[in-house]
Specification:
- It is a single chain.
- The chain has 3 domains: about 90 residues, OB fold (Dihydrolipoamide Acetyltransferase, E2P) (Beta Barrel); about 140 residues, Rossmann fold; about 70 residues, Ribonucleotide Reductase Protein R1, domain 1, CATH 1.10.40.
- The radius of gyration is 24 Å and the shape is flat.
- By secondary structure, the protein is α/β, with parallel strands linked by helices.
- The protein has a 6-stranded mixed beta sheet with strand order 10-9-8-11-15-14, with helices on one face. Strands 1-2-3-5-4 form a 5-stranded mixed β-barrel. A two-stranded antiparallel sheet has the order 6-7.
- The chain is built from 11 helices and 15 strands.
- Helices cover about 35% and strands about 25% of the residues.
- Strand 2 and strand 3 form a beta hairpin.
- The longest helix has 24 residues.
- The protein binds guanosine-5'-diphosphate and zinc ion (ZN).
Length: about 350
């Protein structure tokens, strides 16, 4: 299998040129471990580590290689090892904001971008047409796909459990416009060939969707075999430890690459309200004392959060972090629900009316 089958093209070749003369070769990251990677080159697979220089100069989490990245390596075939010297520019990336552990309360819960997969052509947004079906969730996944610069494709799985497929499709169409919609049943092996055009040689896809919607079943169908969760046993490092690993970048026989990592499986379009409340419980407690139940602690009157800030009871940095985290979620919410914007206007009208009346009383 050549690297072209894995998606190597002119885009990456252009950026690779300066390295070519120096004896480097391109490789795609197929697995990510704590301190090492598995990369695929034209000479086969290698365990790879970041070069000392790259480690020393890399500051951000997101500047380390992720599954799907094309990297510049020097391979040592006798030792089945390679060194990663650089990441070639990403066409796109799928990432999440991670709250750094240890960075919690005092430092204000610093968040950093974590790349879950890179260089993706299509994102299959899988949902089940059973009790799991949820239009709002599809919208959130759609937004996440667009935000990452990738093309969403809606896969409506479990059509065998749905009595009225046509009206379900119409509901989805109404919110997704020109996005392709593929009704399938992984269980009954129905409609799976519709996924084929997105998985031709050199194209990379990821599967997103809640647990239980049928992602594994679909991947198994595409592979034509039951995928073994534990499928390779390899030497880990010089200490000779063995680790069992799951292939995270799967190459189909007739071309096409599927990236399926634990991080992608856990991906949720944004942190849920509950998560935010748990992470910023102090702010939640304060917010209960604000005059308005839905106070956003911006310029609302009688805001307990603002009072705490001015009295030095709440750290400004921490509050800024909180705002940053909810901003993204709220932005998406507003975009998803056109009525929300109207409601927002009405809410502020009420507030200003209330302020006026208070002034009159005083
Ligand atoms: P994942 O968590 O998204 O990977 O979901 P799985 O592939 O593990 O599937 C979850 C459950 O749904 C399993 O019990 C599957 O057998 C079942 N399932 C998957 N696809 C279909 C389908 O098309 N129809 C029905 N009825 N069940 C399905
Ligand atoms: Zn408030």
């Amino acid at each position: 299998m050549t690297i072209e089958a894995l998606g190597w093209d002119e885009f990456f070749n252009t950026y690779f040129k300066p390295y070519k003369q120096e004896g480097y070769q391109p490789a795609r990251v197929t697995q990510e471990h704590k301190n090492s990677y598995v990369v695929y080159t034209n000479e086969g697979e290698f365990i790879a580590r970041i070069s000392g220089k790259m480690r020393y100069t890399t500051r951000n989490y997101s500047d380390f290689p992720a599954v799907g990245d094309w990297v510049v390596v020097k391979a040592y075939p006798q030792e089945e090892k390679a060194t990663i010297h650089a990441i070639l520019p990403r066409k796109n990336k799928f990432s999440r904001k991670a709250v750094l552990s240890g960075g919690m309360p005092d430092t204000g819960g610093k968040t950093e971008e974590q790349v879950l997969a890179a260089n993706i052509d299509s994102v299959f947004l899988v949902s089940g047409m059973d009790g799991n079906f949820n239009l709002r969730r599809i919208e959130r996944y759609m937004t996440a796909a667009y935000d990452s610069g990738t093309n969403p494709v809606i896969v409506m799985n479990k059509i065998d459990l749905c009595d009225d497929i046509q009206s379900r499709i119409a509901e989805v169409e109404a919110i997704t416009f020109d996005t392709p919609i593929l009704p399938v049943s992984a269980l009954k092996n129905n409609g799976i060939d519709q996924l084929g055009p997105y998985l031709i040689g050199g194209k990379t896809v990821v599967f997103l969707g809640s647990s239980g919607v049928g992602k594994s079943s679909l991947i198994n169908r595409l592979l034509g075999i039951e995928r073994l969760r534990v499928n390779s046993l390899r030497k880990n490092d010089h200490r000779g430890r063995h680790t069992t690993t799951t292939r995270e970048l799967i190459v189909l026989e007739n071309g096409g690459v599927i990236i399926d990592t634990p991080g992608l499986r856990e991906f949720q379009p944004w942190k849920g309200e509950e998560d935010l409340i748990a992470a910023f419980e102090d702010i939640a407690v304060l917010a209960e004392q604000c005059r308005f139940r839905d106070c956003r602690h911006e310029n609302e009157p009688d805001c307990a959060v603002h009072r705490a800030l001015s009295e030095g009871l709440l750290n400004h940095k921490r509050f800024e972090n909180y705002l940053q985290m909810i901003k993204e979620a709220r932005f998406l919410e507003i975009r998803q629900n056109q009525n929300a914007q109207q409601a927002e206007k009405t809410r502020w009208k009420q507030i200003s009316k209330w302020q006026k009346r208070r002034k009159e009383i005083i």
